[in-house]
Amino acid sequence: GAGVSQSPSNKVTEKGKDVELRCDPISGHTALYWYRQRLGQGLEFLIYFQGNSAPDKSGLPSDRFSAERTGESVSTLTIQRTQQEDSAVYLCASSRERLQEAEQFFGPGTRLTVL
Amino acid sequence: GDSVTQMEGPVTLSEEAFLTINCTYTATGYPSLFWYVQYPGEGLQLLLKATKADDKGSNKGFEATYRKETTSFHLEKGSVQVSDSAVYFCALNNQGGKLIFGQGTELSVKP
What we know:
Chain A is mostly beta strands. Chain A has strands at about 5, 10-15, 20-25, 30-35, 45-50, 55, 65-70, 75-80, 90-95, 105, 110-115. In chain A, strand 4 (about 30-35) and strand 5 (about 45-50) form a beta hairpin.
């Protein structure tokens, strides 16, 4: 079956521009997660959705970052007024349920470069 | 808050050598513990997991045992192969929701 997909795979933008990153989770997975992996660092949690609501937004680094999920499916992560420190690989994951033992399935990521 | 610490890399081994990658955690309660692996050019994927104390997760010859007394979840493999070259991430999940990851350990296995 299809895994988690993300688009675009690569995005190069200029400082100050807005970007939208898309995630298509595995069909039927109710939980969806966004993480960020900066060069040479581990994965940082950004936000997760249970259905269409976001119970935990604690990882969003600033108010320039926002995310939404519609129809318990696609999610979009938006970064406004991008800065060079936003350059990273943005990973999306989904799981069948929001359980601590549940496997999270990761997409291939979107590599964002802010010039 | 909850955190994961794993040994720094890179780790370079010869084929058939024994592998240990150390992982310790700090968490309240009883988290589930995971090892994820990222092969070159591929996405992050689950290698193994353990959900309660003394559980052993295993997959592809890798093993890790959930040790609550030492708050550890060390990854081991008896005989590594070149194809095991990858970045390995230890992670925990406490009360559902987000995974908290260690920094990752790069493993390079030479023929």
